[in-house]
Amino acid sequence: MVIRLKDVEPLGRLLRLATPGAMAYAAVFPLVQVGLIAESTRLWRGGGYADGAWALLATSSLLPLHLRHVRYAAEGSRAPGGAWTLGALTVVVVAALPLGDLWLPTFHVIAVSALLVLRPRWSLPVVAAVVAVQVPLALLLDSEVQAAPSYYAVTVLWRSAAVFVPIWLVGAVRRLEEARQALADEAVVRERLRVDAELRGTLGAGLRSISTRGQQAMALVDGSRAPLEAELHGLVGEARRTLAQARQMINGYQHASLSAELDTAATLLTAAGIETQVVLPVEGVPDTADESLRSVLRADVARVLRDDTTGSCIITVTHRAGGVWVEVSAP
Questions:
Q1: Rounded Cα distance, 10 and 13, in Å
Q2: Tens of pLDDT along 73-124?
Q3: What pLDDT, in 10s, does the model give residues 222-232?
Q4: Which entry of 46, 64, 182, 195 is 20 to 30 Å from 237 by CA?
Q5: Hey, is 331 helix, strand or coil?
Q6: Which residue has better confidence, 9 or 215?
Q7: CA 273 and chain centroid, separation
Q8: Around Cβ 172, how many Cβ atoms within 10 Å?
C-alpha cells in the first residue's frame, strides 16, 4: 500500500504551540494545590480562605520562576542563570511550609526545575533529596493524612515525572527538528559549492583565457597588424566557446536530468536522517525531466522533511501511459 504524503501539517506550527502548551501544563498542579488548600482549610479546619490567600501569594511568587525554566526547556535549552532562579524558587517553597502538609505536593516544582536547569549529576541528587525530605516534613507538620510520609513522597515523585517527561519530550523534538534543518541546509550548501566549483572550472577558465588574450591584443596594438588580427580572432573564438558553454550549462540547470533530481532528493532526505531508497524501472529514466515532474518530486520531499514521524521513505519511478511518474511513499 502506497501512502501519498499530502496534507502533512508543518511541524513548525506545532512547535510554536508546544511551548505555551508546556507552560500551561506546568502551571496546573501548583494552581490546583492552591484550590485544595483553600477548600480544605475552609471545610475541615474552619480557617476560612486565609490559608488559600497565602498559598496563592506563594504560588504567584514561585510560578514565574518555574515557568521560565519550563519555557527554555521546551525550546531545547537550559535557562541562563537557572541555578540562581532554582535557589530563589526553593526559598519560596520552603518559606510557605507554615501553610501545613497540604503544601508539600508543591515541592514537585523544585524537582522539575532541577531536572530542567541542572546537569544530571546534580539534578538527580536534588530530586532524590526533595522526595526523601517529604517523610520528615510530613511527620513534623503532624499531617492528618493516613500514611502521610509515604503518601507525600510518592505524590511528589509522580507529579515530578508527570510534568518533567512531556516538557523534556517537547524540548527533544525541537532539538531534533533543529538538527534536521541544519543537515538539510548543509546538503543545500554542499550542492551550491559543487555548482560553484563547476562554474569556476568551466566558465572561470574561459573568462581567464579571454582576459589574457585581451591583454596580449592590447600589447600588440602598436605592433604589426598580422599578429594583432590573429590574437583578436583567437579572442573572439574563445569568447564564443565560453558563451556556448555558459548557455549549455544554464540550459542544463533549467532542464536538469531526472537522475540528478533523484540524487539531490535522496541526498537531502539522507542528510536529514531519513533512510531513503530509490526504486528505478527496468526501462531506465529519461535524460530530462519537465518542470511539473520536478515540482511534484520537490513538493513531496519538502513534506517528508517537515514530517517528524517519518524515519524512512521510498522514491519510486514508474513508466505510465502519460509518461514518467515519481512517487514518494512511506513504507
A1: 6
A2: 998 888 999 899 999 999 999 999 988 888 999 999 999 999 999 998 999 9
A3: 555 566 566 65
A4: 195
A5: coil
A6: 215
A7: 13
A8: 12
Q: Do 304 and 313 meet the contact criterion of CB atoms below 8 Å apart?
A: yes
Q: In Å, how far are 51, 57, 146, 246, 260 from 254, measured between CA atoms?
A: 74, 66, 77, 12, 12
Rounded to an integer, what distance in angstroms lies between the CA atom of residue 43 and that of residue 326?
69
Rounded CA gap, 130 and 156, in Å?
A: 8
**Amino acid at site 197:** A
Report which of 142, 103, 170 is spatially closest to residue 308, judged by C-alpha positions. Answer: 170
Q: 308, exposed or middle or buried, with CB in 10 Å at 0-12, 13-18, 19+? A: middle
H helical segments located in the chain: 11-44, 50-74, 82-95, 108-117, 120-132, 134-140, 148-199, 205-219, 225-254, 258-271, 291-306
Beta bridge pairs of residue 278: 315
The predicted model scores a pTM of 0.59
Q: With beta carbons less than 8 A apart as the criterion, state whether 144 and 102 touch.
A: no
Q: What SS3 class is residue 276?
A: strand
Nearest to 304, CA basis, from 329, 325, 280: 329
Which three cell numbers mark 204? 572561470
Phi, psi dihedral angles at 143 (to 5 degrees): -65, 145
DSSP, collapsed to helix, strand or coil, labels residue 142 as coil
d(CA 171, CA 134): 29
